[in-house]
Design goal:
Blueprint lengths: L7 H17 L6 H11 L5 H9 L12 E6 L2 E12 L5 E13 L9 E10 L15 E5 L1
Antiparallel strand pairs: 1-2, 1-5, 2-3, 3-4
Helix pairs in contact: 1-2, 2-3
C-alpha cells in the first residue's frame, strides 16, 4: 500500500460510488462486495483490515498549545497564542482557546465596550468556527501566524 489511508467516511463514499458506477454499467454488486473491492484497491486483504487501519490512526493535529495564530473574531482582527486545544470526538474539529495579544472589543456599540482577552471556540481543521453570526459569518477564523 502506498500513501496514506483516507478517512472511514471517504472510504465508504468510495465504495458507494463504485457500486453505483458498476450498477450503471449493468453489473450489480452488494454493498459489502464494494467495500471489499475498495479494501483491495488500498492494498488491504479485506474491509475489516482497512477499517481497522483507518480507524486506529491518531486524529489530525491542526492546532497546538503555544502556537501563534492570527485571524478574526466576530469581525475583529487579532493575533494570539493558543493556550488550550481539545480534539473533539469527530476528530476533525477542535475546541481552541486563544489568548489575544491585545484586548478585542467585540461590541458593535461605541458606548458599550465588550472586551475580550481570551476566547474559546470550536473550529474545523482549517480554523473556521461552526458557530456563525446572524448574517452567516463564522464567529472565528484562525490562521497560523
Amino acid at each position: 500500500m502506498t500513501g496514506s489511508i483516507p478517512t472511514l467516511d471517504t472510504l465508504k463514499d468510495q465504495a458507494k460510488r463504485l457500486r453505483n458506477s458498476l450498477a450503471q454499467s449493468g453489473e450489480k454488486i452488494t454493498h459489502s462486495a464494494s467495500l471489499e473491492l475498495v479494501a483491495h484497491q488500498h492494498g488491504m486483504k479485506d474491509w475489516n483490515t482497512l477499517f481497522a487501519a483507518a480507524g486506529n490512526r491518531p486524529p489530525p493535529v491542526a492546532f497546538a498549545i503555544g502556537q501563534r495564530v492570527n485571524g478574526e473574531y466576530l469581525g475583529h482582527a487579532f493575533t494570539a497564542k493558543i493556550i488550550a486545544v481539545q480534539a473533539m470526538q469527530s476528530s476533525e474539529s477542535f475546541r481552541v482557546t486563544c489568548l489575544f495579544d491585545k484586548k478585542v472589543n467585540v461590541s458593535k456599540f461605541e458606548n458599550f465596550p465588550v472586551e475580550r482577552y481570551r476566547v474559546t471556540a470550536t473550529v474545523d481543521q482549517h480554523g473556521v468556527s461552526y458557530d456563525k453570526t446572524s448574517n452567516g459569518v463564522p464567529h472565528m477564523k484562525l490562521k497560523a501566524a
